[in-house]
Design goal:
Length: about 120
C-alpha cells in the first residue's frame, strides 16, 4: 500500500487517462475544474493520482470529456472501463500530440521543407 505521499498505481493511471483526454480535447485544467466546481489544484491532484476520484465525480468528468459510458442492461451499472483500459501512456506523448496537431495546420508550402529534412 502506498504511503500518504505516493499515488496508488490505479489512481495514477486513471489520472493519466483524464489528462490525456483533456489535452486531446484542448481543455485546460481550469476548464475542467470550472465545469466540476473545483479548483484547478484539485484537478491537478486527480491527474497525478494524489487524490482519489469518487464514482459520481468520475461520472461528471466523463460527461465533460465526452467519454461514452455504457450501462449494462443486466445490472444497470455504469461501466468505467475507459478510465482503466489501455496501456500506459508513454512519456513524451503530449509533445508528440502537439506536433501532430501543429503539422495538420500547416499549409502545403510549409510541409515541403519539413519533408526534405526526413531521410
Amino acid at each position: 500500500m502506498p504511503s500518504k505521499k505516493e499515488a496508488d498505481a490505479v489512481d495514477a493511471h486513471v489520472g493519466q487517462r483524464i489528462r490525456f483526454r483533456r489535452i486531446m480535447l484542448g481543455h485546460s485544467q481550469g476548464d475542467l475544474a470550472k465545469a466540476l466546481g473545483l479548483t484547478f489544484q484539485q484537478v491537478q491532484k486527480y491527474e497525478k493520482g494524489t487524490n482519489r476520484i469518487g464514482a459520481s465525480r468520475l461520472f461528471a468528468i466523463a460527461s465533460f470529456l465526452r467519454i461514452p459510458l455504457k450501462k449494462s442492461a443486466v445490472n444497470s451499472q455504469v461501466g468505467f472501463a475507459w478510465f482503466v483500459s489501455g496501456g500506459a501512456i508513454t512519456p513524451g506523448w503530449e509533445q508528440s500530440w502537439r506536433a501532430c496537431a501543429g503539422f495538420g495546420r500547416l499549409r502545403p508550402s510549409g510541409i515541403r521543407p519539413l519533408l526534405r529534412l526526413v531521410p
